[in-house]
Amino acid sequence: xxxxxxxxxxxxxxxxxxxxxxxxxxxxxxxxxxxxxxxxxxxxxxxxxxxxxxxxxxxxxxxxxxxxxxxxxxxxxxxxxxxxxxxxxxxxxxxxxxxxxxxxxxxxxxxxxxxxxxxxxxxxxxxxxxxxxxxxxxxxxxxxxxxxxxxxxxxxxxxxxxxxxxxxxxxxxxxxxxxxxxxxxxxxxxxxxxxxxxxxxxxxxxxxxxxxxxxxxxxxxxxxxxxxxxxxxxxxxxxxxxxxxxxxxxxxxxxxxxxxxxxxxxxxxxxxxxxxxxxxxxxxxxxxxxxxxxxxxxxxxxxxxxxxxxxxxxxxxxxxxxxxxxxxxxxxxxxxxxxxxxxxxxxxxxxxxxxxxxxxxxxxxxxxxxxxxxxxxxxxxxxxxxxxxxxxxxxx
Length: 396
Description:
two-stranded antiparallel sheet
């Protein structure tokens, strides 16, 4: 007895689609499409037109505009064909706004036209639409975000960090009676939050240095960048992802200083800020044609100018005669550590909107690279200072 050839994956997807009861309770009363009609050539794919007809025949209660979104999600390669794996990804919730969730989600209609063309929006809706176009390169992602965003929770991480940085700066300004170039004050480094090479065994200093700034000019640029860039990114990607990039940039910044500029202290949140901004700019460059934000070239130029000004200020200050010799002024290397995190971990986080990072091989590669760097820096801090017989400035 000869064996019958097994059906192609697209035929299996078609047969599985017929068994989806969530779409409509009365679906079993409809005439079912024969599996061979879905993929007569047994190619492993069905056309988007056939998939559309399956959706229409099994989901009369599904909003037609949401159906268009589902079709675009299934045809992830935009080649007019849907394979079995595309269908499985859609049904297995690999994307949080998946096929089943879309059926149960909200009552608002997702228009087939571009989100930017919608009229009659109130101020809050226009703000959400603006954030979507500032941060997301695909129209389908912008529509999903606009339809599902509830501002609950609000972008609390970046706002909280910013308020703490401003509060600590004001407190230090009153204590030192100095607000401009606070770092030149003789007692500035005595604060227990500053990273100092002699006190590198106090592990909290690798993170808490972000609450100390060199002066109002330093604080102002960092706060402006992290609010203008960080808050919209957090509104889209959430506090967990953005907080991860920010903290990873902060830690990488202080560790980079401990390796590359071993005698210098570190202050300021530039490591975290540069991680977010560089990730955002890299995402815009990589998805240039899809980004529909207004004046994107001008905005990139302004962001780069602000970053260059802040970095130039840090370089000048580092080599300026110190107010408390023999300890130099704070290092600028933390900025470079933040940029390195932004164009590696940060790009992966921003590129994979509403997709699990655990499923991305590139994510694990960059996590491994970051972990190796952290371990190297830890051992460097333990052994290198004594092996190099480096003369460190006295503790503050």
